[in-house]
Design a protein that fits this description.
- With about 375 residues, the protein is of the alpha/beta class.
- It folds into two domains: about 120 residues, Response regulator (Rossmann fold, 3-Layer(aba) Sandwich); about 160 residues, Response regulator (Rossmann fold, 3-Layer(aba) Sandwich), CATH 3.40.50.2300.
- It has eleven helices and eleven strands.
- The chain has a six-stranded mixed beta sheet, with helices on both faces. It has a five-stranded parallel beta sheet with strand order 2-1-3-4-5, sandwiched between helices.
- Helix 9 links the parallel strand 9 and strand 10.
- The N and C termini lie close together (about 10 Å).
- This is Nucleoside-binding protein.
- InterPro entries: BMP_lipoprotein, PnrA-like.
């Protein structure tokens, strides 16, 4: 799979260190897991924003229906709110004209529909549904209210003129942090913790796996989901996140990437507890720059985060509604439009930024194609 991904784009000068350990792993404190020459392909085009003309949103009333956890999850929902904040700062959207409601874990679909109808009845237009769990209720409500403009994050199944899909190339950003994990691992053994075993989160895992194997084909990867499909508490259970991450660390992983929402706090605490000066362990955050949002006590183990720019999508959507130009929005928020990426806060990936950006440019330029499934 790695060979197909990198044909014509990557010349490997090395691979996972051969110590005789299962899966190509090595002992902590050894030399780097992989040494490879990053792909060439020139610089990528600068990203563009659909809302760059700074439209006037002062007359809009924006409703936001958050996913489980709501504002304060330090991840997905907070990223959506960051887009609202930027629209307030840049477009003149009044804070008093923003109303926020939040989903409960495992609530019935009619509760989500009621939430959307409440926002519309209170005069909010547009309304932004944050999360794929809104897909079925939104399809019903949007059909009932053709004069209300809706957007939904992470779903493109609704074919109605008043619904805009805000979807992302999560696999592309995850590929980049997979490269980072392989380059930073001393054991040639990394891990992935997913919140809920659904196709969306499987995209994160798929990209992460491809990125790691691109530079270390023999790397060993632990992968586990906190809850099965249908049980969305996996996005809001730090204790279970801690248990799953601890299991992967005990199995030998020394870098763990989570795509688990608020449960990621438990992943960070597990990594912190297992990390020592002689045997450091590292974590990779998701959605937001979690070095900035996580508990300061665990910040030093967070080397990077996969940035899923829900903030950019929400900001651009509000701008497009205000300027009556929804057609200017990208079909998918990918690396080309700064829809996904990776963070550098904390400086722990500064030494590999050139390699990460070379892979980023190769993806943007089409030299590397990242698959959304394993």
């Amino acid at each position: 799979m790695a060979a197909a991904l990198l044909a014509g784009a990557l010349v490997m000068t090395g691979c996972a260190r051969d110590t005789g350990a299962a899966g190509g792993g090595g002992s902590a404190g050894g030399e780097a897991c992989a040494t490879g020459t990053a792909p060439s392909g020139g610089a990528a085009a600068a990203p563009t924003s659909a809302a760059a003309t700074k439209p006037d949103a002062s007359s809009l009333k924006v409703g936001v229906a958050y996913d489980i956890g709501g504002r304060g999850d330090q991840s997905f929902n907070d990223s959506a709110y960051a887009g609202i904040e930027k629209a307030v700062a840049d477009f003149g959207l009044a804070e008093a004209n923003v109303k926020e409601l939040t989903a409960a874990p495992n609530e019935p679909e009619d509760a989500a529909a009621t939430r959307l109808r409440q926002l519309a009845a209170d005069g909010y237009n547009p309304i932004i549904a944050v999360g794929f769990k809104y897909a079925t209720p939104l399809a019903k409500v949007a059909a009932e209210l053709p004069n209300t403009q809706f957007a939904i994050v992470d779903d493109n199944s609704i074919d109605l003129p008043n619904v805009t899909s805000l979807v992302f190339a999560e696999e592309q950003g995850s590929f980049l942090v997979g490269v980072a994990a392989a380059l930073k691992s001393k054991a040639c053994h990394i891990g992935f913790v997913g919140g809920v075993d659904v196709p969306l989160i499987q995209k994160f895992e798929a990209g992460y796996t491809q990125g790691a194997k691109a530079v270390a084909p023999n790397i060993k990867i632990e992968s586990k989901y906190i809850t099965p499909a249908g049980d969305f508490t996996g996005f809001q259970d730090p204790q279970k996140g801690n248990v799953v991450a601890t299991g992967e660390l005990d199995a030998g992983a020394d870098v763990i990437y989570h795509a688990a929402g608020a449960s990621g706090a438990g992943v960070f605490s597990a990594v912190k507890a297992k990390s020592t000066p002689d045997s450091p362990k590292y974590a990779i955050g998701v959605d937001s720059d979690q070095y900035l949002t996580a508990d300061p006590a665990v910040r030093d183990v967070i080397i990077t985060s996969m940035l899923k720019r829900v903030d950019v999508a929400v900001y651009d959507f509000i701008g497009a509604v205000a300027s009556n130009n929804l057609g200017a929005l990208p079909k998918i928020f990918d690396l080309k439009v700064d829809g996904v990426g990776y963070s550098t806060t904390g400086g722990q990936v500064d030494d590999i930024v050139a390699q990460l950006d070379a892979y980023k440019n190769a993806i943007i330029n089409g030299s590397i194609t990242v698959q959304s499934t394993k």
